[in-house]
Protein 1
Amino acid sequence: MSTLIDIRAAERTYDMGAVQVHALRGLDLAVDEGEFVAIMGASGSGKSTLLNVLGCLDQATAGTVILDGQHVDRLSEEALAHFRRTRLGFVFQNFNLLHRSTALENVELPMVYLGIRGPERRRRARAALERVNLADRMDHMPSQLSGGQQQRVAFARAMVTRPRVLLADEPTGNLDSRTSAEVLDLISRLHAAEGITVVMVTHDADIAAYAHRVVILHDGRVVHDQPSPAHGGPPIPHIRSLDAAAADRPGPAPADDREPTP
Amino acid sequence: MNLVVWLESFHIAFREMSRHRMRSFLTMLGVIIGVAAIITVVAIMEGARHTIQGQIARVGSNMILVIPGSVSLGGVRAGSGSASSLTMDDAAAIDRECPAVAYSSPVTNSKLQAVSEWGNWSLNVQGIGPEYFDVRAWKVEAGRRIEARDVDAAAKVCLIGRTAARQLFGHVDPIGLRVRVGGTPMQVVGTLAEKGQNPLGVDEDDTLLVPITTYFRHLSGRSRPDAIVLSTEREADIPQAVEQVTALLRDRHQLTRSEANDFAIKPLAEAAKTAEETGSVLTALLVCIAGISLLVGGIGIMNIMLVTVMERTREIGIRMAIGATRRMIMHQFMIEAASLAGFGGLLGVLAGIAGGSVLSRITGWPAIFSPGLLVTPMVFAIAVGMLFGLLPARRASRLSPVESLRHD
């Protein structure tokens, strides 16, 4: 299997005036095509920054980031937008649906930016919604849908363009445990059926257990990278214990490591 | 930039407008008022200009009026025309000695009672020379003109206007019939083509023309004309004609260098031009004021677009994450601003047509809505919308996708 994501010595430094905040400090990560990876870490560990860099919403300040053979760290903003449009699919914790548009229109949206015409767009959006079992909710507004249904619309929107990578940022963070299980089953099903590469950020070991591989970040570096327990790996360590172990190691003060909040 | 994204942008623009109807309407109000004001003012001014031009053309745009000047007695100056300084000999001399003058005729007129077999009617009786028809560009509908031999012989003949004919003869053909004017019987030899009202609102068809000599001998005791009317072949000859007539009359009236003219010369085209210039200055001024309203409307659009960009920061982040480029976001908000202005412009055009029609009814001037008049302010409104939409659209397109996605 070929390497789809290849990140080497990635750094992401935020210049907050007087202080420099290092969100990623020499992070290395390689993900093969078709993998299902969970990324874990305490808040401030750099997992959101990593996902933004992987999602081409942000760029590393140093190191190399190669996605699907492209040096995305060297691309212009215009090219990054094109890359997102054609090869990436996003699912967010708070769904991020356009609340003034129907479920169908939300799923059509990525195809608008691909320049696909109305009838074809609607046909494909309907098919995508049928695949997530929302055939009877197409004309509903997000406010008329439950959290689980909204997240399924978001999956349909992310998958409708057949991306190379699905990036999920705490996809079950706003859902109860039963709905979370449904959504995770959906991810597993999409992964199995379409062979898509999935990178999912979570802080919950139970959620991470659905993935095939678990990567744990601390202080902007990878500190654990093993198959998940169900795929022959060791038990997922408790993040708090990793934090404590890391705190014993010499390094910069953790106060500097918080991700900036705008 | 592909068509699909543009269509989506228009779709969003109209959805947002219908979502915030009141807010959109208030935002558009400046543009609506600006466009409506421009259209109303220009349509009415155009109508007025058209009306005046039509009237001037009917009077004869190359016509020059020579009237006796004011007389000054012991420092008390009477009004113009109070001195009867013009004579029949002056009229003959102008005809003879001024090459720039194509046609000329002495004129007198007064209100007199005319009586026919069918009824009587008070009308405007004018004593004229044979070239009067050429000066005024009046056409004879039936019969003949008053000719030189009628003037020489002081013949008791007359031509009659449409209104006068209807009042005195009803539907009977008046040619060859008799009418008594001020007690003198005259034979009708011709009828005048219809002319309508002159710029002063006088019905030019309510008239009766007689040879000026007949007028002097039978209708009044006077022997001097009220005015001499003349015309040139071309409009360009008017200054030369004025110069020649002035020199001739000063010479004939034996005026010394220090004495003012005892007559006045009024080219009608000049008066028309003055009126037109005044009109266009006024139009330009009013259009400027309306243009300022349009600009203020543009500022309103900018303001509301800045608010919209703030409110929809999350939406912008989502669109960027999904693959919209900064340029696509910029175009989306430019299209929204232009749609607001364009829709406002459309309402302004309708309001302008309504306003022009109402004003037309009040003033009596026609309102002329040329296609250019309806399209130009509309295009201008859209341009204003795009200009003032530029800043909010730039702001939207420069948002960071990561931060926008976190925005509440």
Protein 2
Amino acid sequence: MAVEAVSENSAKSDFWDGVRLSMPVVVAAAPFGLLFGAIAVDNGFSVFEAALMSALIFGGASQMVGIELFGQHVAPWLIVLSIFAVNFRHVLYSASIGRRIAHWPMISQALGYFVLTDPQFAIAEARAESGRSVGFVWYMAVGLPVYVFWVIESALGAVFGKLIPDTHALGLDFLLPIYFLGLVMGFRKRPLWLPVVVASAAASIVAYKTVGSPWHVSIGAIAGVLLAVILPPHHSGVETKP
Amino acid sequence: MSTTFWIIIAGAVATYLTRVGGHLVISRFDHIHPRVEAGLNAVPAAVLTTLVAPAALSAGPSEWAALVVAAVVSLRGGLMAMFLAGAVVLVLGRQFVG
């Protein structure tokens, strides 16, 4: 009895600890959820499709990219490939967090990977590094509020976006490049960041002027990645890792 | 079902593969080739840059001012601060400059 009571108490405190940690993420993601919904509708999505995309993909940057390309009438396979490319960083999160949650039941692990966003990874890694165990209840208490609010905000943004009369004056069409610039700047501590950005920018601009949209996205991205592959490893800082 | 629906489904499957795939695939290898790892590290910046550069080139003074202000703010502030600063400059620019 006593043992049961103790474990129930710790599950409760784990839950509320997780919810507490999720709150700043919920607040920070709110404008982007609303923005995503509004832009999705602006680019030809229905309210249901906007909410569905948020519910099934749950990755802000990749959803923004997908919507932007959809609005440019890019081929569907290239939209999916771009979503995959933007989310590819999760592979590294997954490899890292896998060591912390490998003891969970299989279904729990499957759910855990579904909510593995950037903040989820950062918060879970921080807990693991501090020596505490990453339990399923705690982990989902961090992820679920972020998920639920993200879907609701996307739907609200989509409903509200239809009511905005002059989207140009509000700058809706250019908010995404600003947002993407922010994400690009967020990676600036990575090795080879500047050469990769310069190569991708130059290649995408040339491709945009010659081959045309949407191919500038793939061509520019390949140019940056190839540069990182071709440059000697001591420039890319990867050989210093254990 | 519409094309949009299938794009969303395929995008969701692709995304889930990235979230579960690292654990399933990469943890089996003791060692990733440094050049492959360097290429993987470059993916986000490379993809995202292509969504900024051509848009910036074909834009006007309001958009350029917004990008410059946002970039400067991002050196100190977080994503939210830089985004709001850029958005404010953009909206003001479009109201008064066009």
Protein 3
Amino acid sequence: MRGSFAKRTMAEPLSQVVASMPRGRFLALMALFLGPAVAIYTLFSIYPLIATMALSTYTTDSSGAYQFVGLVNFVTLLTDAVWSKPFWNAAWNNLVFFAVHMLVQNPIGIALAGLLSLPGLKLKSLYRTVIFLPTMLSVVIVGFSWNLILSPLWGVAEGALKAVGLGSWFAPWLGLPSTALVTLALISVWQFVGIPMMLIYAALLNIPDELIDAARVDGLGHFRIFWHIKLPLVLPTIGLVSILTFVGNFNAFDLIYTVKGALAGPNFASDILGTFFYRTFFGFQLQLGNPTMGAAVATVMFFIILAGVCLYLFIVQRRLRRYAF
Amino acid sequence: MNKGIAWMRGGVALAALLTGLAAAQAGSLKIESWRNDDADIWNSTIIPAFNKHYPDIKVEFAPSAPADYNAALNARLDGGTAGDLITCRPFDASLQLYQKHQLDGLNDLKGMDNFPDVAKAAWSTDDGKVTFCVPMASVIHGFFYNEDAFKKVGAKPPKTMAEFHEILDKLKKDGTYTPIDLGTADQWEAATMGFQNIGPDYWKGEQGRLALIAGKEKYSDPEYVAVFKELASWAPYMGSGFQAQKYPDSQNLFSLGKAAIYPAGSWDISTFRKDAQFPIGAFPPPLPAGDTECYISDHTDIGMGVNAASKNKEDAKKFLEWLATPEFAELYANALPGFFPLSKAPVTIKDPLAAEMVGWRKDCKSTIRNSYQILNRGTPNLENELWNVSAQVINGTLAPDAAGKQLQTDLDKWYKPAK
């Protein structure tokens, strides 16, 4: 509310100052404010992106000489079973990885944010810090710790299950083809659940107390207030969290690489696009790196993410109603 | 055209540059290596020994993590920030660097004739005309055993597979020790310490390896499937949850004296020398029923070459010439027991376990891992497949004959042996 007040009083004079500026000074001002960001963004994001796309249209021979081949790399990647099988396997696994995050991480994040925003909750900032803490840890440390926790040799997981009489439930989850990927996804969920929690918590704090008070006067309990009033009001933030999760998951690499290595076993059960790209571009053990094919994989990954983001921007976000307070 | 490539490669190299690696300077030498475990020994023993001959040459040993080495090295070579001396992986990884003119040919290096052809083969062109790395060491596969464990169940090192399985049964019945200390989580141990370790006895070493390259034998042939069958039979003797047991887990399990038999690579000697508190013995791969001749995997593993873009090639060559001397062979073999020199000069190895392993060379014929030469040049990559299927065979998710068939089918997709 203070924001809209500031806009009403400040906006007019400021725009007059800008409008009455000589054209040269105006452009210089623009360059001053936008220049650094544009320069850095161009050098470190746009240029490598375009360079990667260009590289994907070439191929190399054994002497390292490059030849232009157009879209051949993409045709090979998507139609030749030698390439397309591991590619689709990685893409599917990536989708599963994303689904686990959407079904587990984000609902838990929302629930935690809802609990944190309850009035009268004690030790609020302690909970908030503790839940957010793993997010700040290095993925290498997280991967290593969970490797030890779940280790069938020295891990505490088996002992903990035995202590509550569920010892027979224990399995070497990280080593079985049926469970490795989901286990890794859950480790990632454990680490990053703090991010949706924080974003949604911040959005919940923005909801004016008048709305909540009115609902309470009408006789609604905490749960129904959350379900019918707070949740609809934070939907745009949930949309944002979903798209961040999507981009993050389809760029994921580090956790899988740390825990399972670049070969992402067993039998490529935990192979996602990031590890598939790594093996293709840099090579692995005796597999030689193939930079041009790797660039093609990176380009396809970029388009998958672009498609997902566009889908969200044009279809989902337009339907979300925003509430102005 | 070339300019177009240059700016694209520039984009790729940008990432490498950003990691802030300083370019090598003249007057000093930087060594690229994946042996980060050995950094202490290089700094405290090997480099000082070199400096006794050449006090003015400053040598820096700059290792990367083994799994990242090839990728990191290639990025640094492309970006022009790699060190002067490059530690060479055997066969194609280094051959590619030579073909891209990133490694110099070393045919006229003084001391190259100290090495037999078989040692140079791992770092030579296919026609054998140019050698581009100085052979440094090979590694030998076999089995380590906890002598206390063998004493407890009254076992002696097995000569045949039948005896090997008798011991395994005894150890399992006794229950004090995990009979076979091997995990499949990292996959490579299943292929390297399993398949390539016991395999040479089945496929008759070099004879079988060359027959595979010539296309006369196939991975789906009975002798190769038999290796997978043997591996599959190990699972009941391995620790519970071995599917999630990683390489360091296996090393710790053996060091702590909780396991009896460790399928080993000789490079493990220094780890166990440091950590294990019990006597360790070694035996070569037991012979399959009916065989009398033994074969061991004596794999050319590590060499060193000159970065073609080095600004200090003169000193780099001096270092390599010193690497080719018997003095270095003796020093390296004893500083790093388990890495066996490849030079013709006789070397005395003081570590008894290492001496025992190198002694197998007298009775058994040496061979190298059969997936390393030539058979890795296509897609899908044979070595990756071998890791994958070996781990699956031990996990029990792939039948031995299906494993052989999968390897051969994948190889047939691109490999056409010369007729």
